[in-house]
Specification:
Keywords: Coiled coil. Helix 1 runs parallel beside helix 3 and helix 2 packs antiparallel against helix 3. The protein is built from 3 helices and no strands. It has one domain.
């Protein structure tokens, strides 16, 4: 039962890694879309600030991922100790997932706002 829980947590971790990779690709795609639009200096500055905030939050997310990778049960753990480990690992995964989602969501909102302001200023609504 406990090994199933650990295996499930490992699968969750793999899914989160995959999600992180797809979000990086999406981020790259969004950056390329923004680069195709002729930016004014103010839009560039706003975009740079949004990316700075995103990369700062991703540093924190990376730290959480490293803690998850290093988090191991003690070798003397009994069944109760292993259950506590699984609970803690679940909490760490949940925190990791929430912070990752928040970081990406904030970046998407910031970029959408920058693009919207750029379109409003230039009169482009398509």
């Amino acid at each position: 039962e406990l090994s199933c829980s650990v295996r499930a947590l490992q699968q969750d971790l793999e899914k989160l890694k995959s999600l992180n990779e797809s979000l990086r690709k999406e981020n790259h795609s969004l950056r390329e879309q923004l680069n195709t639009v002729k930016n004014r200096p103010s839009c560039d500055a706003e975009f740079a600030r949004a990316l700075k905030v995103f990369y700062h939050s991703m540093t924190s997310v990376r730290g959480q991922l490293q803690r998850l990778r290093r988090h191991r049960p003690s070798e003397e753990s009994d069944l109760l100790g292993l259950r506590l480990f699984v609970d803690e690992q679940s909490r760490l995964l949940r925190d990791f997932s929430e912070q990752l989602e928040d970081s990406v969501s904030t970046l998407k909102q910031d970029i959408a706002a920058i693009v919207r302001r750029k379109r409003e200023r230039s009169g482009i609504w398509s």
